Amino acid sequence: MDKFVITGGNRLEGEIHTSGSKNSSLPALAAALLTDEPVTLTRVPKVRDIRTMERLLVDIGSELEVTGERVTVHTPVVVSPEAPYELVKTMRASSLVLGPLVARCGRARVSLPGGCGIGARPINLHLMALENLGAKINQEHGYIEAVAPDGLTGAEIHFDRITVTGTEDVLMAATLARGETVLNNAAREPEVTDLAAMLTRMGAKIEGAGTSTIRVQGVKKLHGIPEDDPHEIIPDRIEAGTFLIAAAITGGDVRVTGLNPEHVSALTDKMKQAGVTVDQPDATTLHVRGNGHLHAVDMTTEEYPGFATDLQAQYMALMTQADGIALIVETIFENRFMHAQELLRMGANIRLEGRQAIVAGRSRLQGAGVIASDLRASASLVLAALVAKGETVIDRVYHIDRGYEKIEMKLSHVGAKIQRVE
Ligand code: EPZ
To answer: pTM of the prediction?
Structure first.
């Protein structure tokens, strides 16, 4: 199992480029199942979760051509409309094939995800919505089977709580349903808007993506997206946000390029309040300059456009280096403070009370042996290690490889002392 060995203390300087979004690429790859024509995407990041989704598509019957960041998916026939336990247990987003498969072939069988490091993560809202569209849902031997032999029919759907992949799953299904579907209390995340843009290019009729009410007029058939004019995936706002924090925590001077500043504004607002200078030299670049003096700023995670739960762990690392007390409240997942225990081992002063973390800074962090428990928790440990005195060894970095493309190379390039060892 790979580890990262990081020696803290270097100020980051230079330029880091943002990869395409993992959480946009996953539904985009699943959406390619909605048509029997080839669909080409670009700016698909080379991360482990994407490889898992590609494996799943091949099992289902897709032919894949991967050249660098460009992926063409062609599924002339669905051979097996199923997402097996082995894949779903390693990546919950596998359930994103449920909607497209039931819409295209009237049948899908997907393993129930089960528990996860950051919370329960059920898919009951995906199932409720598909039932509203006319699918019959059965649960057997840990699998969910959704059947709609005569196709799906548009309906009015209300999500009791906002779900990102739930909105995406049902949005995909609704594109091929008969008549109109209205999704109320839909997720407004940029990844949902990107998916709607892609589906529109495939011939879907969608209005309101990016707002909490999405209307879909079902069509009979969707078509492909040509190789010479592919759909470009949006920048990864969580990866970009992690780099912005890396610059700030080391008091560095870094330009993060190829991002969408609007997608990270909840974070940059907090960073500015904390005393970091953030400028926007052009439409896709943010320039971060830290002066080594940070003040504590409270933060509560929320659905987009609020502060992303996927940046909470990284923000906690930043707050260990701020003067004062920061209250961090996690409202999206019930168990997303695993990183706090490891940060404590590095010398942070954090008290957990249910869904709240009270971070008192500034702490003099020290290198230690720590364990990465999930994707974003691992990123938080990397950030803490960049400012810790001495050497930090992070075990189980396969978690970070799920969602960050060559993070050690990107960080080394701006001056971090980080090495991958086997
Ligand atoms: C997406 O997960 C992201 N994953 C997550 O990113 C992200 O943390 C999360 O949205 C929140 O922003 C992908 O896009 C692939 P949800 P998702 O459904 O869709 C509850 C990362 O680090 N809920 O929006 O699975 C659920 O338990 C990952 O890249 C139900 O109760 O999250 C949670 O409390 C991790 N029933 C809340 O809703 C349901 O049917 C939001 O979850 C679905 C969700």
So the answer is: 0.97
